[in-house]
Amino acid sequence: MPATVLDGKALAQATEAQLRQRVDALQARSGGPPPHLATILVGDDPASATYVRMKTNACQRIGLESAALQLPQQTTTPELLTQIETLAQNPAIHGILLQHPVPSQIDERCCFDAIPPAKDVDGVTCTGFGRMAMGQPAYGSATPRGIMRLLHHHAVPLAGQHAVIVGRSAILGKPMAMMLLAANATVTLCHSHTKDLPDQIRRADILVGALGKPQFIRADWVKDGAVVIDAGYHPGGVGDIELPPLIDRVSAYTPVPGGVGPMTINTLIMQTLEAGEHALA
Ligand code: NAP
């Protein structure tokens, strides 16, 4: 049987029509402006600038307002905290996105945690992570939540499956592990100190590549019939997993591009709408 393509682009496009209807309905109820996302970009990294632009474009497509704040490369932690605090106190702002990564002189964790949980629509705060991990209502970290939505949409069985995640970052690998655990998968979380990575990966029914190295995970480490999720995206249009030789022998896979990326953006705008619905309804 041919592998299922976990097409994030198609699902995100289909969902945008529903989100647009919800924005219209919310505005009709509240009589005010639509929910508003504030984005903060620090520095001049072109890839980050592109991601922020894609996010504000997505807001526009479904009728959300967005305001883009661009800060210089040499911004300090106190300066960034002041900006976040201002947005946090502004009742007209419903969601705050601080684009990751920030320049190295900034304490990113401290700045993430200055975002109030009610406006943490990208799911980056310790409070949000803790609540999500304990099964309490919270905005999920956008990339792993987007991956979970894609898996659920395609009815990929998760309970009892062995999920292996490569990468343990706060925005991706760790929350991914918690979400798959909550879905009753058995989870192995790998990182740069993991011994025998190929052997760990060979045991995966569900493999998530989230380490940020182009095609680092070789096709011959992946078992037949696995579900392959690739969060990476690198120049040349490749991900973290060597995908082409796998397409004929896995049960499902995310294309690169067009798999995980569109779902990340779609989850961010969905959670911004949810934050607006809470504040304005
Ligand atoms: P990150 O913060 O750099 O974290 C990378 C993780 O990979 C770390 O936990 C690191 O381990 C682990 N790692 C590095 N080299 C390894 C190796 N040789 N073997 C095993 N583990 C290794 O990266 P991130 O922000 O989570 O992003 C990961 C990837 O996802 C990147 O390609 C990024 O572009 C992509 N991404 C995509 C989206 C999207 O929307 N599509 C969103 C976010 C990120 P240690 O903890 O031990 O250092």
Give your account of this protein's structure:
The protein is α/β, with parallel strands linked by helices and 281 residues long. The chain has 2 domains: 31-117, Leucine Dehydrogenase, chain A, domain 1 (Rossmann fold), CATH 3.40.50.10860; 142-261, NAD(P)-binding Rossmann-like Domain (Rossmann fold). Helices cover 41% and strands 14% of the residues. It has 9 helices and 9 strands. It has helices at 8-30, 46-62, 77-89, 108-112, 126-133, 142-153, 173-182, 197-202, 260-280, and strands spanning 4-5, 36-42, 65-71, 95-98, 162-166, 186-190, 206-209, 227-230, 252-253. The strands form 2 sheets. The protein has a 6-stranded parallel sheet. A 3-stranded parallel sheet has the order 3-2-4, with helices on both faces. Strand 5 (162-166), helix 7 and strand 6 (186-190) form a beta-alpha-beta unit. Helix 2 crosses helix 9. The N and C termini lie far apart (47 Å). The mean pLDDT is 97. The structure holds NADP nicotinamide-adenine-dinucleotide phosphate.
Features:
14% strand; Rossmann fold; 6-stranded parallel sheet; alpha/beta; binds NADP nicotinamide-adenine-dinucleotide phosphate; 41% helix; 281 residues; globular; 3-stranded parallel sheet
